[in-house]
Design goal:
By secondary structure, the protein is of the alpha+beta class. The protein has ten helices and 13 strands.
């Protein structure tokens, strides 16, 4: 074997060993440390090379390389495999829901593009700053029914200040109620009930616009002067606690009929919050991740296109996913997600 070949095999073994160690740490420690939180968040970028390494190792009979990369390859298959399945979803939709983190006023152009192209029935918005709301109050007459949550202090994507969540709808909002029992440092959230009868749906459709605790990479532990949820590790624990509470709320609402949750989870497929919300165990929400059900692309919504993580999602129970899409960010640090859903009759 040539020197170049030996070097290539050594590098492949080092990659496989490192990826396997990182994967094990993520699975064992979860979001409990800053390193494993970031590793889980960015798994899309460091796991897929193992899928290439496996057939190459088999072809050249590099069994040491194969042993090193098999675990990350299996994890990469679990992450990307569902996106490659054909024939999922399709057909006509009854309800179109979009979620978008505006990043204050930076995402206003993205919102315009989103509404013009997809015309969602329901918009779940996050990081609506006071300046953005003043602008929005004078635009988009096609959404006459609007709810705005209380602003909260954040250390978010727009450099700090205050922001809040919002729900816009083409059908009436009949009631709202605050979600209680959230951990310290969590943003406030409300269950917003829509009358979806005009769309062929139930007279009471609860929806939630979620924005889980922001990470504060580089913040000192318990650095609440920069982030109400504290430093990176503490904020990760807050997100898990939020997800468990929202999972409980979702189970209670789903017992009565369909429910839709959407928003910025500040976590991705290999982080704990999404696993909690979609899990079927006693603490899981039992929700369907629309993108995992019918999506065909990675949909990395956080950061420049392509982003580095899928943190913006639409989740549902009691509704059938039909299709989903990622819209242009238009200046926001997040891309919007559009989900087409169908009533289960």
């Amino acid at each position: 074997m040539s020197a170049a070949g030996r070097l290539t095999r050594s590098l492949a073994v080092l990659y496989g060993a490192g990826a396997s160690a990182a994967l094990g740490a993520v699975l064992v420690l979860g979001d409990g440390t800053a390193a494993t939180y970031v590793a889980g968040l960015t798994a899309f970028w460091w796991l897929p090379p193992a899928l290439v390494a496996v057939p190459v190792a088999v072809a050249v009979r590099a069994w040491g390389v194969l042993a090193a990369v098999v675990a990350p390859a299996v994890a990469a298959g679990a992450l990307l495999g569902p996106l490659a399945l054909p024939g999922r979803g399709g057909g006509s939709a009854d309800l179109r829901v979009a979620t978008f983190n505006l990043t204050g006023t930076r995402g206003l152009d993205g919102l315009r593009l989103l509404v013009e192209r997809w015309q969602p029935d329901v918009l779940l918005l996050q990081e609506v700053s006071p300046d953005a709301r003043r602008y929005l109050d004078e635009h988009y007459a096609q959404y006459p029914h609007r709810w705005y949550g209380a602003a909260s202090r954040v250390g978010g994507d727009d450099g700090g200040g205050t922001d809040g969540d919002a729900v816009w709808s083409t059908v009436p909002i009949t009631s709202t109620r605050a979600v209680t029992g959230l951990p310290e440092g969590a943003r406030p959230a409300h269950v917003v009930v829509l009358d979806a009868g005009a769309l062929g749906g139930p007279a009471a459709l609860p929806v939630l616009s979620l924005h889980l605790a922001s990470p504060c990479l580089g913040c000192s532990p318990r650095g609440r002067e920069n982030n109400p949820a504290g430093g990176t590790t503490e904020a990760a624990a807050t997100r898990v606690a939020e997800a468990r509470r929202y999972a409980q709320v979702a189970r209670e609402l789903a017992a009565e009929g369909p429910v839709v949750l959407g928003g910025d989870l500040n976590s991705s497929d290999f982080n704990e919050p999404l696993r909690v919300l979609t899990g079927d165990g006693p603490d899981g929400g039992g929700l369907t991740d629309v993108h995992r059900a019918v999506g065909t692309r990675p949909q990395l919504t956080r950061g420049s296109n392509p982003g580095y993580a899928r943190v913006d999602v639409v989740l549902t129970a009691g509704l059938e996913p039909v299709a989903d899409a990622e819209g242009p960010a238009g200046g926001s640090t997040h891309a919007p997600v559009v989900a087409d859903l169908r009533w289960r009759r």
